[in-house]
Amino acid sequence: MSSKVLENIRMDLRDIRIFCGRYFPFVVIPLSYARIVATEIIETAGVDERGTLAINPSWWSSLKVEAKRFVAIHECLHAVLCHPFRMKGFDHDLYNFVADGKVNHGISSARVSGVDYDCGSIVTLNTLATVTGLRVEDLEKMSTEEIVRVLEKYGGKGGQCGDGGLGDDLIPGIVEGEVIQEGDRSVTEPKNREDLREAWKRLCEKAKAFAKQAGTLPAGLERIIDEVLEVRPPWQVTVRFGLRNSSKFDASFAYPNRRSDDLPGPINYRYTVWCLIDTSGSIGEDELRYFLGIVKHEARRASLRAIAWDAEAYEVLRAESPQQVARRVAPMMKGGGGTVCKLVLEKVYRFMNSGDAVIMLTDGDIFDVEKSETQEWFRRVSSKAGFAMIGYTHKPVVAPGFTTAHINFNSHK
């Protein structure tokens, strides 16, 4: 490979960094820190498992300036968003497919003139909406991993884009080639996968701070960045701390204190945890038993009640034995549409006491969740409850006053 070809690519990347400094500042630092090589081994461009950017020089030279900017930003985002490290444990093609959609949405949300890829098809959130059946608005709220799990569950397929499109660009293994840019030691020296991920995460924090300082960080891109920087606790932890913090304790000299007669003794108030179980989704008896078991374990001092619901709210079940409730609710798990949650919210509001905990378990496909009347009932229930949470298995649900957590039952199998 001639030195002139390499020098031309270096000049292109220098011009792209200057352009991004003004219009897309988030990638300026990562693009300056990344190791970049030129190789004919790959068809277009990609990022290997260490975060090295690889470019096919023949293909690169055929692109227009606008397309070169798009490709550089696209591959740089893959690296700084830690996609090569986050994809471990997932189907490679599916993860690459979804990550492409997320990255391309981040680029389009910036609405930068002069960044465009017209050399073939690319994956967008509209593409993902078609294959998942979810709305673009829902996909924006979901992490890359959550969308991949949806596709894995329903047999979705990823793959390479045809006609010169960018796809299949998260390259397994390590790519070697002619060095265009050595890269910064902070992201090239770490040896193992976890150290590399932490190094790129720190670089992501630095890039976000730089973009904020420059005053140019679109909300759509920031949501994708926060997938890396904001650590979401497992849903079991959310349940644990939510229930423990909602417990009411008081003290009185009428009760003995085991430590000293001079101190008041504790008064434990018995409260109730209400589990509202959506029977129209794909939650099976084993998953329900596990879910109720976690709730019962974390609320050992509480009484447990369950209400199954779909288009209507059914009877209140005592749930002191999770196995028994799971057996009773399982026959109602028929699947299908017609799910509305307003009736079950009205019912639990009528029966619950102030300070009780309310946890809704659903696949997220709720017909009336965005209606103003339903939103008002979410507010009423959450204001009366000591802890209110929605656990969804498929589609995100956002409700006033409720904590939201994605429930992945596969993690305990």
Q: C-alpha Rg, in Å? A: 26 Å
> How many domain units?
2
Tally of DSSP β-strands: 12
**Estimated helix fraction:** 40-55%
The helix/strand class is: alpha/beta
Which key phrases capture this entry?
single chain; 413 residues; alpha/beta; Rossmann fold; 6-stranded mixed β-sheet; 4-stranded mixed β-sheet; 12 strands; 46% helix; 14% strand; elongated
Short description:
The protein is α/β, with parallel strands linked by helices. The protein has helices at residues 3-23, 28-33, 57-61, 65-80, 83-86, 92-109, 125-132, 136-141, 144-153, 185-188, 193-214, 219-229, 235-246, 285-298, 322-329, 342-351, 372-384, and strands at residues 36-38, 45-47, 53-55, 178-181, 249-252, 265-268, 272-278, 303-309, 313-318, 357-362, 387-392, 403-406. A hairpin with a 5-residue loop joins strand 2 and strand 3 (53-55).
Describe what you observe in this structure.
The protein has 413 residues and is an alpha/beta fold. The protein has two domains: 227 residues, no CATH class; 178 residues, Rossmann fold, CATH 3.40.50. Helices cover 46% and strands 14% of the residues. It has 17 helices and twelve strands. The strands form three sheets. It has a six-stranded mixed β-sheet with strand order 9-8-7-10-11-12, with helices on both faces. A four-stranded mixed β-sheet has the order 2-3-1-4. α6 packs across α7. The radius of gyration is 26 Å and the shape is elongated. The two termini are 51 Å apart. The mean pLDDT is 86.
